[in-house]
Structure formats: structure tokens, C-alpha cells
């Protein structure tokens, strides 16, 4: 399997290229892409086979690990999660940005998301790729890439080297990061921070 590499230039990604990426993801492709925090590995969150593939690559067990979803906006998130008024206000204030919100899942997601709680991540550093969720019409399952050496999280060339032959698409957004998103539990009173990451200034 040859991984298709797409570089985000200063003028962004063309609409045609974005459409091609969305078609591939809709058909079950796995992509590695930049987010506000780390490079992530993503697929269509409504495609069970693609979800299984990402879980295999990451070594995740959906019955034991909480899966994270990136939505294009809060309206899309509200289709798949129960968002109370206070949580809505917090999310509106903090997004887009490097935050993951734990919310209770609603109906409409594959079995892999049927745990008591699921994470919803709205971060997306690159405005062009944030539109992928809107064009796809679905949220994206996302998990951070695995790396042992920091260079393999930061350098696009090294990230591509690791996932060549494993992922279908690599979105080269330049230098990556090593600090994860801040995780906020919106299912608990006072919205405690579960993980301190970028912009944890609540």
C-alpha cells in the first residue's frame, strides 16, 4: 500500500484535493494529519471497518479505551452527543482550539462508541482540514500517533516514514507538537480538567 502525501502550503488545500481526501475517507481510508496539538490518525467515525483498522494500528480496545471524535463544529457534535447548556457555553467559548470534551454519547454512532462516556475533540489547527468534517458530513475518529522519540512526533518526514504502508493518506502540515489537548470532563460537576494540555487556563 502506497501512502498518498498531501502538503498544506501557505495557500491551503485546493477544493479538488479536499474532495479527493473526503472521498477516500468516506470509502474507509485512514489518514495521518495535523491537529492543534499532535499529529493524529483519523478515519470516518461512522465507518466500523475503518474504526477497527485505526484501533488495530493504535493498539486500542474500544471496550476499554475511550475513543475521541473530532467534529467540524458544535452543531455536528450535538448530533452524536448529549450537550447540556453549561457544557455548550464552555465549548462555544473554547472552540475551535486544542480541547477535548468528555460528553455522554447519543445514538447514531457505531458500537465502538457505546461506552458510558466518549471524548469529543473539536481542535483542528489547519482551517482547510477542519472543513473535511463538514464536507464528509460525519465526525472523524481521531487518536494521536504513536512515537517513542520526540523527533518522530515533530518532523513530518519522520511521521510519514513511520506510517508509510500503514495509513492511506498523510497530510503534511509542517512541524508537529508534543503537548496534547486539554481534556475537560463535561459529565461531572464543575467540569474538571482530566488532562492538562495546551491552553489549560480555565
Summarize the structure.
With 202 residues, the chain is α/β, with parallel strands linked by helices. It has helices at residues 15-26, 48-58, 74-78, 85-94, 127-136, 151-154, 156-163; strands at residues 4-7, 31-34, 39-44, 68-70, 81-82, 99-105, 118-121, 140-144, 169-172, 182-185, 193-195. The longest helix has 12 residues, at 15-26.
Number of strands: 11
- Mean of residue pLDDT? 84
The H-and-E topology, N to C, reads as EHEEHEHEHEEHEHHEEE
Strand content: 15-25%
Low-confidence stretches: 123-128
- Count of runs of 4 or more consecutive helical residues: 7
Assign a percent range to the helix content: 25-40%
Principal-axis shape:
globular
What profile does the largest beta sheet have? 11 strands, mixed
Structural class: alpha/beta
Distance between the termini: 44 Å
Radius of gyration: 16 Å
Amino acid at each position: 500500500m502506497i501512502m498518498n502525501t498531501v502538503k498544506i502550503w501557505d495557500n491551503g488545500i485546493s477544493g479538488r484535493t479536499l474532495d479527493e481526501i473526503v472521498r477516500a475517507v468516506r470509502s474507509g481510508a485512514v489518514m495521518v494529519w495535523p491537529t492543534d496539538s499532535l499529529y493524529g490518525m483519523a478515519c470516518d467515525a461512522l465507518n466500523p471497518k475503518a474504526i477497527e483498522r485505526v484501533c488495530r494500528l493504535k493498539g486500542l480496545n474500544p471496550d476499554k479505551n475511550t475513543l475521541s471524535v473530532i467534529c467540524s463544529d458544535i452543531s455536528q457534535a450535538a448530533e452524536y452527543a448529549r450537550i447540556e447548556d453549561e457544557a455548550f457555553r464552555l465549548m462555544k467559548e473554547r472552540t475551535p482550539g486544542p480541547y477535548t470534551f468528555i460528553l455522554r454519547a447519543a445514538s447514531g454512532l457505531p458500537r465502538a462508541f457505546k461506552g458510558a462516556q466518549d471524548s469529543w475533540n473539536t481542535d483542528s489547527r489547519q482551517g482547510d482540514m477542519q472543513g473535511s468534517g463538514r464536507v464528509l458530513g460525519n465526525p472523524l475518529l481521531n487518536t494521536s500517533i504513536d512515537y517513542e522519540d520526540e523527533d518522530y512526533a515533530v518532523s513530518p518526514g519522520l511521521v510519514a516514514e513511520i506510517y508509510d504502508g500503514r495509513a492511506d493518506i498523510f497530510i503534511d502540515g509542517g512541524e508537529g507538537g508534543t503537548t496534547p489537548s486539554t481534556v475537560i470532563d463535561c459529565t461531572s460537576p464543575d467540569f474538571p480538567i482530566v488532562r492538562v494540555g495546551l491552553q489549560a487556563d480555565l
